[in-house]
């Protein structure tokens, strides 16, 4: 029988571990496939590791990876992909927002010949309108400024990848991993499935506004250099405006014999252009920072222990 690997990153998910295992096990009880579940403990500070160790002793199909510290969601998924040996690998979150009931459909699409089956998240009604719209606008913006079409399917790490795709993914050694973009960038034969995200059963999401903003910048800078071109274009545009404005001032001074006063507007202009310059320097700094981290070639994660 073919083997399916399930990769589940977990950060402070002690209350969800048993629930997500039970949900996945119930699904595979009716499928003609063997399976393994690779839990990646991403530096949890609660009892997640103890729960995983106890559960793995009861169920041999459970494999555990423990990080030396919290490295983040994307490196945790990457670690699971690096060590999975199934004919296909499914990545999903431990908070039960990714429904295990969709796994048979993912596998069916894979058996039809698709190498990657990604999912397109639909938020439930209780999720705020701001969250829905901002997520949609972000991936449209990312598609517009990069060479990767992520207008659909970009907002979820719930996907199935064929073993051939996973082997390619293992060779990706980027310092700032953005798996959602890499999956689309690699190509292969892909299709998408829509699903409605479930409710988190236990614990709280570790994705605060700061982490989401950082994740957004990672996605933008990982697949596009257009922000750098934007900085150059804005420089030319503002220089042209300045030249035209100064020309108007000189002509007015000669024709009317008066000078244009406006100390406040001058200060505002200086502050505005100073802010624009800082923004452009910030964009350049982000790219330089990514180069700095990449050339050091440090690993994306460090494994403290594993049971296989």
UniProtKB/TrEMBL annotation:
Keywords linked to the UniProt accession: Glycosyltransferase, Membrane, Transferase, Transmembrane, Transmembrane helix
Bilayer topology term: Multi-pass membrane protein
Domain annotation Glycosyltransferase 2-like: ranges: 5-141
SUPFAM superfamilies, per the entry: Nucleotide-diphospho-sugar transferases
Pfam families per UniProt: Glycos_transf_2
Source organism superkingdom: Bacteria
Membrane-spanning segments: 228-251, 263-288
Main location, first listed in the record: membrane
Coiled-coil zones: none
Family matches, as CDD domains: DPM1_like_bac
Subcellular location: Membrane
Protein's name in the database: Glycosyltransferase family 2 protein
The species this protein was found in: Kaistella pullorum
Native organism taxonomy: Bacteria, Pseudomonadati, Bacteroidota, Flavobacteriia, Flavobacteriales
């Amino acid at each position: 029988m073919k083997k399916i690997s399930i990769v589940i990153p977990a950060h402070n998910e002690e209350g969800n571990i048993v629930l997500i295992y039970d949900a996945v096990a119930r699904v595979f009880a009716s499928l003609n496939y063997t399976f393994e579940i690779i839990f990646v403990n991403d530096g949890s500070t609660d009892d997640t590791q103890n729960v995983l160790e106890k559960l793995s002793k009861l169920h041999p199909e459970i494999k555990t990876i423990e990080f030396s510290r919290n490295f983040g969601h994307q490196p945790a998924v990457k670690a699971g992909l690096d060590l999975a040996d199934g004919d296909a690998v499914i990545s999903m979150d431990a908070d039960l927002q990714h429904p295990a009931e969709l796994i048979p459909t993912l596998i069916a699409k894979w058996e039809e010949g698709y190498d990657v089956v990604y999912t397109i998240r639909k938020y439930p009604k209780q999720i705020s309108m701001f969250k829905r719209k901002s997520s949609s606008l972000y991936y449209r913006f990312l598609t517009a400024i990069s060479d990767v079409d992520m207008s659909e399917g970009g907002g979820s790490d719930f996907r199935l990848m064929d073993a051939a795709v996973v082997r390619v993914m293992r060779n990706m050694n980027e310092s700032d991993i953005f798996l959602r973009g890499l999956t689309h960038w690699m190509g292969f034969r892909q299709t998408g499935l829509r699903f409605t995200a479930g409710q988190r059963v236990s614990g709280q999401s570790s994705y605060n506004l700061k982490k989401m903003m950082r994740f957004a910048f990672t996605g933008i800078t990982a697949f596009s250099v257009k922000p750098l071109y934007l900085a150059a274009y804005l420089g030319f545009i503002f220089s042209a405006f300045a030249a035209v404005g100064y020309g108007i001032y000189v002509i007015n001074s000669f024709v009317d014999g008066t000078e244009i006063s406006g100390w406040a507007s001058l200060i505002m202009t200086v502050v505005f252009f100073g802010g624009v310059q800082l923004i452009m320097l910030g964009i350049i700094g982000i790219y330089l920072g990514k180069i700095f981290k990449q050339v050091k070639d440090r690993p994306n994660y460090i494994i403290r222990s594993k049971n296989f």
